[in-house]
């Protein structure tokens, strides 16, 4: 456990930041899960809306440096390909 005042404050700050980071990550992961469920169901219109929401959340995670931009690009490309394959 930290003993100095500054270390105690730093610990408090890091715990708060961790909670915020976990919320952001959980939001985008939940959006991806919802999108994948719609793809399995075959609901194209709903999947497109979910893709838009998920893309937005992924971009926000990238902006906060929680997800690498290449991973974000890969996820969004795969979502777009999944929606495109629904028409076939």
TrEMBL record:
SUPFAM superfamilies cross-referenced by the UniProt entry: Ribosomal protein S20
Gene Ontology cellular-component annotations: ribonucleoprotein complex; ribosome
Parts forming coiled coils: none
Signal sequence region: none
InterPro entries: Ribosomal_bS20, Ribosomal_bS20_sf
Record keywords, A-Z: Ribonucleoprotein, Ribosomal protein, RNA-binding, rRNA-binding
GO MF assignments: rRNA binding; structural constituent of ribosome
Any one GO BP annotation for this protein: translation
Pfam families documented for this protein: Ribosomal_S20p (PF01649)
Keyword ATP-binding assigned: no
Function: Binds directly to 16S ribosomal RNA.
NCBIfam families per UniProt: S20 (TIGR00029)
HAMAP family per the UniProt record, alphabetical: Ribosomal_bS20 (MF_00500)
Family the UniProt entry places it in: Belongs to the bacterial ribosomal protein bS20 family.
The protein, known as: Small ribosomal subunit protein bS20
Origin species: Candidatus Doudnabacteria bacterium RIFCSPHIGHO2_01_FULL_50_11
